[in-house]
């Protein structure tokens, strides 16, 4: 049997994924050692390999088949636009992609003015403003702390992730429009999907069952 390789998004998404897999009896003891400098972890018994990567690199590893399976936020999947199959909504990492800014910017949006939009997600922003709203804007690609942009006058609005909303609140900004809901997704390499169909399908089914049980528990 060949190894199935997982690319996980470093940080909270990886921890949550490992928690879920552990419930299915898929463990990786090696990975829990915080002092380890190892980059790839193996479960010999189940013939699985795991590695951690930066979010935007996860779809790249999966498209090229360096990983069979990836776990990454939907924001990153849409923004990267790689050829991968999105197979499952894992239900965690829930947040929203939003247009945010000062309350005063609402008027500019409504009047379809030529405003500047700062974002880490130029493709998502372009798709939203150009194709959905048919509004011409200037998109400025940034790399982090996007909320700064309207505060210092770089842009009128931002397109960014809102989770609890506390970053916005603490900086006097508000959600002006919602672009789309987000959460962690499982993606699969199209060739792996065909070659390792049984193993991957079983994994997806088991995860789906686990998610359903979780939902039923929440409903009670
Ligand atoms: C994300 C996002 C917001 C914040 C939203 O930033 O870009 O800044 O989290 O979360 P909240 O609604 O719970 O406050 P992240 O911490 O990933 O870092 P970044 O600023 O470098 O993008």
From TrEMBL:
* Principal subcellular localisation of the protein: cytoplasm
What keywords does the record list, in alphabetical order? Amino-acid biosynthesis, ATP-binding, Cytoplasm, Glycosyltransferase, Histidine biosynthesis, Nucleotide-binding, Transferase
One GO term in the molecular function aspect is: ATP phosphoribosyltransferase activity
What catalytic activity is recorded? Answer: 1-(5-phospho-beta-D-ribosyl)-ATP + diphosphate = 5-phospho-alpha-D-ribose 1-diphosphate + ATP
Where is this protein found? Cytoplasm
Give the domain note.
Answer: Lacks the C-terminal regulatory region which is replaced by HisZ.
Q: How does the record describe its quaternary structure?
A: Heteromultimer composed of HisG and HisZ subunits.
Assigned protein family: Belongs to the ATP phosphoribosyltransferase family. Short subfamily.
This chain's protein is named ATP phosphoribosyltransferase
**Top-down, what is the taxonomic lineage of the species of origin?**
Bacteria, Bacillati, Bacillota, Clostridia, Lachnospirales
